[in-house]
Amino acid sequence: MPTKKRLWLSGVIAVLILLPIVSVGSAFNAVQSMQTVGTVESLEQALYGTEVPVDIAIPTETASATPDVPATQTAQLGSTSATSFLSLLDQLATDDSPGTHTGYNRDYFNAWVDADGDGCNTRAEVLIMESQSAVTTRGRCTVSTGQWVSAYDGATLTDAGDLDIDHFVPLNEAWGSGAYGWDSATRVSFGNDLGYDASLLAVTASSNRSKSDQDPAQWMPTNHSYFCDYAATWVAVKWRWSLTVDSLERLTLQSILNGCSTVSITVPEKAVVTAGTVSEPVAPVSDGVLDTNYGTCSVAQANGAGPYYQGVDPEYAWYRDRDKDGIVCE
Question: What residues of the chain score a pLDDT lower than 70?
Fold first, then answer.
């Protein structure tokens, strides 16, 4: 057979052999592409196609790939990495019977005091620090107006009377998590903690009362974009004051923080905690002066009035005792 014909025949045979291989490869790639599209669509459907159950806290921030951090790693002071707060959480002791630590009394924490003697109590100090504009005051140091954004619900307010100062870890929660074993000075320090910006927060009165003394397994803010910061702050304050968590609380915090990359708050310094015994609270005594009826406790507190005790202060009858503890405007 002539050389040219042999070469032509070899070329035809090579093409016939390669054609099925290319076709199979193209089909394989097409299948892979279809599978990838299906996977992405399924993931999007899983993430966004159904409503988030009310009871489950799902962070809105997309997590980025971060290296695993050993549980024993010490979080760096000032860090904003979510893994740092997971590390702090790992260091908190577990107590699944916080309700057995009875004897809570808000008065043990003596909120609000004028710790530095400048005429402004803790409430006023927080309002001044957190206002996004210059505040106006009346009297010695009663904040009247400014501009605040309530992190729990995203509301912007200009009237200080519409704001509560929230103990990020509520006093009753702190009591059951370890404050029952503190001395009085440590409790007062916790109740007026200006040493860490995140400990006290100016928020709408309605969101603060909705939260009450519940932990993150029981309550999360309506502002979902704040979930990561909320969980990190809760861990930070508990770690700062060497408080405990219960198992469900821990799982909830882990679930939220595992879905976060960074947060807007920093790791705090440890607070000095001194053990002590619980002393009986001193029975309240009326000061004999009838205050102005401000209509609501928020306005009364903004003017430095309250608390009022049932059977002691006539002002008690002017306000609603929501928790039925015999004290209003506390």
Answer: 1-78, 278-287, 323-324
